[in-house]
Design brief:
The complex is a heterodimer of chains A (about 220) and B (about 250).
Chain A: H1 2-12, H2 15-19, H3 36-54, H4 57-63, H5 69-98, H6 105-108, H7 117-138, H8 146-165, H9 182-213
Helix pairs in contact in A: 1-5, 3-5, 3-7, 5-7, 5-9, 7-8, 7-9
Chain B: E1 8-19, E2 22-32, E3 36-40, H1 47-54, E4 62-67, E5 70-71, H2 76-80, E6 83-87, H3 98-105, H4 114-123, H5 137-150, E7 155-159, H6 167-182, E8 186-191, H7 194-200, E9 203-208, E10 211-217, H8 218-225, H9 232-240
Parallel strand pairs in B: 3-8, 3-9, 6-7, 7-8
Antiparallel strand pairs in B: 1-2, 1-4, 4-5, 9-10
Classes of the chains: A mainly alpha (about 220), B alpha/beta (about 250).
Chain lengths: ~220, ~250
Amino acid sequence: MRNILMKEIKLSASCLSFFFILFGLMFFIPGYPIHCGSFFVTLGIFKSYENARETNDILFSALLPIAKKDVVRGKFLFACFIEGCGMLLMAAAVLVRMTILVDSEVYRTNFMMNANGFALGVAIVIFGLFNLVFISGFFKTAYRSLPFLFYIIVCFAVICAAEAVHHVPGLEFFNAFGTDHAAIQITLLLAGILLYLILTLVSYYISRRRFEKIDL
Amino acid sequence: MKGYCIMSIVEIKNLNKTYPSFRLKDVSFSIKEGEITGFVGRNGSGKTTTIKSMLNLVHPDSGEITYFGKSFIENETEIKQMLGYSTGTIAWYPRKRLKDVVEVVKRFYDTWDESAYLKYLEMFGLDPSKTARELSEGMKVKCNLLIALSHKAKVLILDEPTSGLDPFSRDELLGLFKRLKKEGVAIFFSTHIISDLEKCADNIVYITNGEIAASLSNEAFFNTYSKDGESLEDCILRLERGEFNA
C-alpha cells in the first residue's frame, strides 16, 4: 500500500495537486464563497489524473507486480491523501477563525457562510462527491475527463446550497460563530465525515469493478 | 544419447477475444524455458491483443493462460514478479529521470538485484539521469529490459521490441536476446520483421487473421512450410497470401 502511494506521489502526481492544497486557506477569505477552496483542492487532484493519462501511468501501474485492482487503490489513496491535507489546512483556518478571530468585525459582518464545523463538513462532502462523481466516472475508461464536468456542476450546486442555507429563517445556527451551537456544529461535521466515507467507499468499489472490465 | 525435455513455462490455451471488427480465435501455444520464441504476423493480425491478454491488460472472452503451471488470473501478483515486458515504443513518464522511475519500481520487486541493475545499466550504456523523452526508441526498449533483468525476470514478453530500431540497434538487441537465453531466460517477442526470427528465434509462432497458423521450432517450421531455396521471409509472405502447400 505504501509502495503504490509513493508511486503516485513520485511518478504520477502533478505538482499542482500539492500546490492547490494551499487553496484550503481560502477559508480565511471573508465575503467570498470559501468552498471554492475545496473545489480547487479537487481541481489539483484532477490535474494528477490528467498527468497519469499523459504519462501512460495506468498501463505502467497495471504491469507492476500488483493486482489490477490495486491500481485503483493507489489512485484513491492519493486522492484521499491530498483531500486529507486540504482538510487539515481548512480545519486550522476554522480553528483560528473560531478562537483568535471570533470577534473580528470583518467576519461578523460577512454575508457569506462562516468557517465553522458545518463548513468543514460541507468541504469533506465536496471531496466525497469528487471521489464519487469524478473518480468512479474516470475509471469507466481510465482516460476520460468528462466526469470532471459533471462533478463541477454537482460541486457548485452544493456550494450554492451551503452558502444559502443560513439565510433561511430558523436555520441561522448553520452560520454559528466560535463555540455557539457547538453540539450541532460537531454533529454536522461528523455527519459530513460519515457521508465522505460512504461516498468514497461506494466510489472505490464501483471504480474497482469498472477498471477490472477495461481492456487497456 | 540422453533425451531431455525443455519445460514449457508459459501455456496459452484456446484464447478467444472478439472485437467489433476483429476476432482472436482459439489461440494456443507455449513458451519454453531458455528459448527465444518469435511471434510473427502482419499488422492487425492479433499479436498485440495476444500479448496484452498474456499480461492481463486485455480480458479474453475465453481461454487459459498459465505461467509456471499456475493460472495467471489467480496468481497475478506472484507471477508478475517473474515477468518482464516491453510494450513497443510507449514511453513511461516522459519527463521523469530513469533513476527516479527505477527508485520507485524496485520497491515492488522482492527479487530486485541492485548489482544486476548496475551491471545492465553499464552494459546498455544508459544514463540514469536522462528522461524517457530524451531517449531513442532503442534506448526505451533497453530501459524496459533493464528493469526486467534487474528483478531477474524469468520470462520476457516484448511487443515489437525491434520496430523503429536502426539495423545496428536491432542487431545489438538480438545479440542481447541470445545472451539472456543462455542465462535461462525465456523470451517471447512479436515482430513483423522476419529477418529477426532467422537471426535468433528457436521457435516461431505465426498468427494470421487472429488464428495461429503455425507454432513450431524454427527448423520444423522451415522444413514444413518452406519450398526449396526459399528464405523464411519468402516462405511467410507466401503463407500470408494463403499458399500453404510447400
